[in-house]
Amino acid sequence: MPLWAYGYVDPPPADSDYSKKCTVQRPVDCARGGTPPDDGRKRTLPGGTGEWTVTEIANDYGPVDWYPGDHPKMPDIVAHGDKARGIRACALCHFPNGTGKPENAPVSGTSVQYFMNQMADFKNGLRHTSDKNKANAWEMPLMAAALTPEETKQAAEYFAAVKYYPKNKVVEADVIPKFAPNANNLFLPAAGSNKVPLGNRLVEMPDDPDDAQNIRNPHSPFTAYVPPGTLKKGEMLATTGGDGKTIRCDVCHGPGLRGLDPVPAIAGRQASYLARQLYDMQIGTRRGLWSPLMKDVVAKLTEDDMMALAAYVTSLSPQ
């Protein structure tokens, strides 16, 4: 498993299996829980609505919507979830504009059909993760099962109507800011100016950890650091197939990799997320309705190939 794609610096303990802890029926009970420390200070964002504490910002059943002008009116299930059923608001993890963060999925700009297919795959046990300790991967199947068909459709139609907001960039480097994963396996840069060798991995983290993690700014930029030469290799694999190593991405994902319904748009999305999907499909933990289309694409890929492809695709403009 490419540790960097799942937010690990070191391998998790051998007995680390969150799926064994998550045996309940309420989706929220699968969440790791906990919010960033709250000093009671009210936070604001330029052009954002209101001022809020960290606890208010991260309300499971009504997270702050800093930029309501970014999107249509949210359905109640997206904005608030359902506390009685333990369904957290979609907007909590994926943000009201659907961009999410590297440890979860970008959902804005996906077609209604693709969204519905993925929720069905979660519900039917066809979409899991290679990291058994990834809490949100166990929460999602329970959430898909708990939602009514109408609620799922409302969420699908909403996120399909929201244009994906570009906030990810890729930088080739030998050394990068010192970092560490948080409890949800999101890499965060450490305070200060210390640097560490990147090595042979992809490290994706917010440019401003307070802005991204505590204030939860849906516009907060992220940078994916990769070794020199990675983007050129990724472009070669994505645009030519690498002399039989894989298949050109645009054959299914369309011009600019902006989607060809029901195949999703992938350009500009988070590199860590993209790499996880390649690996999960390769080993078979993601095996839903449309996954067979990816079988020959991923069969021969090494972890370095996945890093290169993910980095290149993230570097593309989503619009």
- Give the beta-strand count: 7
Report strand %: 5-15%
Compute the number of structural domains: 2
Mean pLDDT: 96
What series of H and E elements makes up the topology? HHHHHHHEEEEEEHEHHHHH
- What fold name stands as the CATH topology of the largest domain? Cytochrome Bc1 Complex, Chain D, domain 2
CATH class of the largest domain equals Mainly Alpha
- Helical region count? 13
**CATH-scheme architecture of the largest domain:** Orthogonal Bundle
Fraction of residues in helix: 25-40%
CATH superfamily of the largest domain: Cytochrome c-like domain
Termini gap? 31 Å
The major sheet is characterized as: 3 strands, mixed
Class per helix and strand makeup? alpha+beta
Radius of gyration: 19 Å
Stretches with pLDDT under 50, minimum 5 residues: none
Gross geometry: globular
Strand order, sheet with most strands: 1-7-6
Explain what the structure shows.
With 319 residues, the chain is of the alpha+beta class. The protein folds into 2 domains: 3-160, Orthogonal Bundle (Cytochrome Bc1 Complex, Chain D, domain 2); 168-315, Cytochrome Bc1 Complex, Chain D, domain 2 (Orthogonal Bundle). Helices cover 33% and strands 8% of the residues. The chain is built from 13 helices and 7 strands. It has helices spanning 18-21, 54-57, 76-79, 90-94, 112-123, 135-146, 149-160, 209-214, 230-240, 250-253, 271-283, 295-298, 303-315, and strands at residues 168-172, 175-177, 179-181, 187-189, 195-197, 203-206, 222-226. The strands form 3 sheets. Strands 1-7-6 form a 3-stranded mixed β-sheet. It has a two-stranded antiparallel ribbon with strand order 2-5. Strand 3 (179-181) and strand 4 (187-189) form a beta hairpin. The mean pLDDT is 96.
